[in-house]
Amino acid sequence: MLLVMDVGNTNTVLGLYRLGDGNSTDAAVTELVANWRITTPAKQTVDEFGVLLRNLFGLRGLEIGVVDGIAVSSVVPPLDSTLRQVCEVYFHVKPLFIEPGVKTGLPVLTDNPTEVGADRIVNCVAAFERFGGPTIVVDMGTATTFDVISKKGEFMGGAIAPGLGISADALFARAARLPRISVKKPLKVIGTGTVDNIQIGLYYGYIGLVDGILERMIAETGPGTKTVATGGLAKLIAEGSKYIGAVDEMLTLTGLRIVYERNLDRHRKRGTVALENKQPHA
């Protein structure tokens, strides 16, 4: 089985795929067996993170020994060494990190392609596989990214905005009399209390940000442009958006699977899949 990990600044999303022997893009032979969302383990040791993963598997009735491939997209470089060690010590597998030199099938036509985050690359790979192009991917995480894919399947560029959570935290931190609130769709647009005033401003203000950027991007890419949102807040914002056409919460995991499969033969030839000579970790 294939374990995929999308490591973000706030959350880490994991998925476990059972891959078929045939055309692995066919749902009949490829299955997402389990998925998890956890807080990114910024300060955990290799053993602490390894135990956490083993417990997550155990709660689903799974053994970590079923994993024979791992693909990782990470935007937290200080964690990469820890992640590599976890993969090797607990899973006896050398992971495939999405980084320069990895075959993605997605030409990156930006000023400096190495600056583009791995999560943005795999999102676009999955979106083009599903929707074709032109397509815009909106990923709502710690930051909200807008990524534009051309009709030919090229990464054209995009935009980055502060995430909704950051906006809410900044309001609470900078305004002494305003309370911290949960972000949700408000029942009305004209608030009569402090809490609903804040919820209205955050929710509809953020929809305005998302739709404002999408409207201008679609004006450049053409009226046939598809749009897909992913990330923890994608469903919430998509409910009120005029321009988000689809929500796919598993988009990043799907992209990681696709990129792994495109590199599978080369990855195995280099002898980096299984660490057969290591004994199981106690």
From TrEMBL:
Active site: 119
GO terms for cellular component: cytoplasm
Protein's cellular compartments: Cytoplasm
InterPro entries: ATPase_NBD, Type_III_PanK
Positions annotated to bind ATP: 6-13, 142
Cofactor(s) needed: K(+); NH4(+)
UniProt cofactor note: A monovalent cation. Ammonium or potassium.
PANTHER family, sorted: TYPE III PANTOTHENATE KINASE
Protein name: Type III pantothenate kinase
Organism of provenance: Edaphobacter paludis
